[in-house]
Amino acid sequence: MSDHSILGAQVKEMQVAQATSILGLTADLASACVWDDSMVADSQLRQRDVSFVTIGGGIGSFALVDTLRIAGVSAENISVIGPFANAYESLKSLLINSQIPDSNRIRSGSSDRMDNLWGWPGYGMTEAFRRKNPLLLMHLAAEPVLCEYYTPRASDVYASMDREAERISWHQMFTPGKVPLVRKRREGGYFVVVVPPDNTESTDNTGSTSDASGSKLEIIRARYVHLSLGAAGLRILPDLESYRAGTGDMNHVVNVYEPHEHVYRALIERPGSSVLVRGAATSAMEVVGRLVRDRNSYDSKVTIYHLLHHYVNKPKGSPMWRIPGGNGFAYQAFTFTKGAYGGQLQDRWRSLKDDEDRTMLLGLLASTAIPKRRQWLRELARGKSEGWYKMLAGSAAGLQKGDNEKIVATIDHDTVDNDSEHGSENASRTIEVDYVIDCTGVTVDVRDHEVLADLIDCGGAGLNAIGQLAVNRSFEVEGAHSGSGKVFTTGFSALGNPYVVPMYSFWGYQYCALIIANSLANEGFCNRINTRRSIGGWWRLVRNRTP
């Protein structure tokens, strides 16, 4: 037997042992990739039947459930599994940590409403009438030519989703828990293993809390499964991970999506301190904005070093696919251009047969960019002229513990000045700062999700050219079908799909939900959202009536 086969067998044994000891599955269930009804019945684990299960319980789940309810699926035929009762809780946590509190505006358009599939009236119109502000209506009419795009406040997004959740009976469909395994059912469909939250009892919609084996584990038998799990975790870069492992210091070097309010408090309490912000995405923009506001409000005299991997001093891309740029940043109002939802970009994407060409186009459309906010840029220009905002462009080569609780950061391939695009290509420099805030994002490796890794290893799912789940034009995971049952996925795990859409945006989730709903309508599971149903659905929405 080859070393590879031996290693594979050992991994399989470990997985079986974990499923048996930690999850409480029987040995037969833990070792089998396909289960049948008799195996599950013999386990004496608690079971229930539901037609459609969505796993994740976040924005992606909410978008699809909302669409299916509009398409005529009853709440009794849907089950939502996730860690939080409110679909926006994970998003809210990430936004707060990246310095976007409820009162701030998020990077989303007026018509991108998670509570309103039709997008009208948009957040902007709703806010204008609520505040009795006709100038806001003029703003909406003039964007983006005469003014910046309108963006909604986070609190308005949460409130609208709460209202829609009540309307579609979201909490009736919701079950708290985690799904480590999805197994194919020999008779067709799937078995979904649900582990309840720690120290709580798992209850289904009937109120049952126990089973014959005494286990809190629950198994749901379903025909359709939807996976929308979000990012797998924080992206901790090697130098940051090495620094933490070597020093045990978790307070002075942080990821933007970790709770780190203590950093801003310390910078205020110790005037004259310095901080290194790494990254050029929206989260870095918000962090720098918070630091500038604190400097202005509390006279903290903080020095801000801002490290960009690439300094953008002009528009980038070919003439046909050009993104504006300057002052170090690429500018784009939203994560993807609005044209990504149709027209020439979709045609261009579909015409590409080579996976490498698709990957290159996706990289261009989804490249790091920020909205061009004039006030923010004016503050940075003032900081450069006064010497307290210093832009760097290069690679982070390492972090070390210095004297007096300082952190020594090594920067390769640039100089520390305000015209970093003119720096020597081979320059290397070290700077001493009090804190480092890393804004390089999250990890999207599908294997970091337990259930997705198991679906690949045991469920027949394949990967596409960029390492995400391979899906067809209906967002069905290829290779994972089971009889008449299907597995769908949206979000990060569907990147590189047959459509060039921003998978992790509000409208991107709704776009995918409409396509999946059409596929399910072809199977007879729900009604097609035709003109009549669409008009009726919108009218019920504005009157706050159940779908």
What's this entry about, in short?
The chain is an alpha/beta fold and 547 residues long. Helix content is 36%, strand content 17%.
Would you mind describing this structure in some detail?
The protein is of the alpha/beta class and about 550 residues long. It has three domains: about 5-90 and about 165-230 and about 445-540, 3-Layer(bba) Sandwich (FAD/NAD(P)-binding domain), CATH 3.50.50.60; about 105-150, no CATH class; about 240-315 and about 370-440, FAD/NAD(P)-binding domain (3-Layer(bba) Sandwich). About 35% of the residues lie in helices and about 15% in strands. It is built from 18 helices and 22 strands. The protein has helices at about 5-20, 25-30, 35-45, 60-70, 90-95, 125-130, 135-140, 155-165, 170-175, 240-245, 260-270, 280-300, 345-350, 355-365, 375-385, 450-460, 505-520, 530-540, and strands at about 35, 45-50, 50-55, 80, 175, 180-185, 190-195, 220, 225, 235, 255, 275-280, 305-310, 325, 330, 390-395, 395-400, 405-410, 430-435, 435-440, 440-445, 485-490. Strand 6 (about 180-185) and strand 7 form a beta hairpin. Helix 4 (about 60-70) packs across helix 17.
What is the overall number of helices?
18
What is the CATH class designation of the largest domain? Answer: Alpha Beta
Oligomer: single chain
Helicity level: 25-40%
User: Per CATH, which architecture of the largest domain?
Assistant: 3-Layer(bba) Sandwich
Number of separate strands = 22
Task: Sum up the overall morphology in one term.
Answer: globular
Mean pLDDT: 86
What profile does the largest beta sheet have?
5 strands, mixed
Terminal Cα separation, in Å?
Answer: 59 Å
Backbone structural class:
alpha/beta
| Alpha-carbon Rg, integer | 25 Å
User: What fold name goes in the CATH topology slot of the largest domain?
Assistant: FAD/NAD(P)-binding domain
Strand order of the largest sheet: 1-6-7-8-2
- List low-confidence stretches: 1-12, 199-210, 415-424
The total tally of domains equals 3
Q: So, the CATH homologous superfamily of the largest domain?
A: FAD/NAD(P)-binding domain
Instruction: Please state roughly what percent of the residues sit in beta strands, choosing from under 5%, 5-15%, 15-25%, 25-35%, 35-45% or over 45%.
Output: 15-25%
